[in-house]
Amino acid sequence: MKTIHRRQIRTTIYLFFYWMLLLTNQISSQVTVNGSISNYSINCGSSSCEEDVNSSARHYYVAPVDGMLVISGFAAPGTIQCCGVVNQLTCSGGFRKLQGFTNVHNFSPDLTTGTLDCVMAGDSIELNFSGTFGTYGYNASVIPTQGSADPEPNTTIEQAYFIEANNSYSGHVNHGIYQLDAWDYIGFEAPGVGKLSIDISHTEDEDGVFQIGVFRNDGIFTGSTRVDTNPFVFEQDCLSQGDTIYLRLANNDCMAYFFDVNFLLPTFGDDIEPNDDTSTALMSTDIFGSVGHNFSDEVLPDREDYYQLPPVAIGDELTFNMEVVGGPIQFRLRSAMFSGFVFNLGVAEDETIVNSFQPTFDGIFYLVPTSNTGICGDYKVELSGCVEELFLSGSQSQQIDIESGGFIHSSQEIESGANIQYDAADYIFLDLGFQVNPNAIFLAFIDGCD
Ligand SMILES: [Ca+2]
Ligand SMILES: [Ca+2]
Ligand SMILES: [Ca+2]
Ligand SMILES: [Ca+2]
Q1: Residues having C-beta closer than 5 Å to ion ligand 2
Q2: CA of 63 to the centre of ligand 2 (A)
Q3: Measured by CB atoms within 10 angstroms of the end CB, which terminus of the chain is less buried, N or C?
């Protein structure tokens, strides 16, 4: 019982000193120190010269920022005259990582400088001196890595820091001499339908070492990109509103990165949702939007958009001018009356296609642009032919005749080079915003379908 009791006390004392040491490491960051070592016993026959002040000293320096640690110092042995004889004593020292076996740098009697790159803010360095008699001193600092440090830890998707469009950021990878900062996770949530575009520059010398890994919101890895130019543009298209994308910035060496975040909206204007079936179809001849946007599993795919067209009868003809940026997008017509009816208007990818439709029965039809999830595109469809009501908006850069059996309302901007004809049976109304740019041709007729 007695032995155990003693051992417990001893353990408690050890723990206390260990705790004191930890406490010292944390709170005592000494930038500049000057001190001395004095612990000798010289026997010169009849008498002796001795002093027992301290045989060793430890100091700690904590890096205030990410960067390169620079410590200048010296450890200069002194002499003691004892019984008329000059004795050369010892004093040495240097700095090392906490619990390191060897010093990163040993000081000499003259001032020397040692460095340690890629330290992280909070990293602690031990300065140690020992010997019999002498003086020592040091001055420590960190040359900061460019840019500001990113919020650490960000080693997992759950720890990712979020970025927003129209903002600039900077960060560091691979700093830290105790914990590895091999990568930084970044998160982005799409504010709408569109494309994430990041202009990034960095301090890595070698092309292709710096890599960007891409992950979905559920942690599924979708691929990685080697950053082989500086600056570099990273793009992720086909994001829907609420889609969350995670990027992992990884590099072999310590490095700083800087980036601007942009979010590019659909080419022809905001996508109006929901419009995924006949019951939610948009009732407008102003037809533009996007399909195929979807990245994360939490967001519903937008494969199809439905537009209800004006009523048509046998003998009518509708012409569709289908402009696509991205894609491919397939355009089909469906019937309100016969669910099995499908008329294929064609597939477009970064191009404009034109096709006509002559109904073989009277009725209501839906125009349905379709794209596969993750293969997104923006579309704008100009409808002409014998429809009664036409509402036109946006910009117009093509050569096209637009016909209506009733009226046309337009707020279009006719771009230079365009050649546009409006032809309506009843009236053509040019709404606020309508404009014709120089070198464009615009003609309007009261005539109707022919
Ligand atoms: Ca980092
Ligand atoms: Ca990190
Ligand atoms: Ca859509
Ligand atoms: Ca839709």
Answers
A1: 154, 181, 184
A2: 17
A3: N
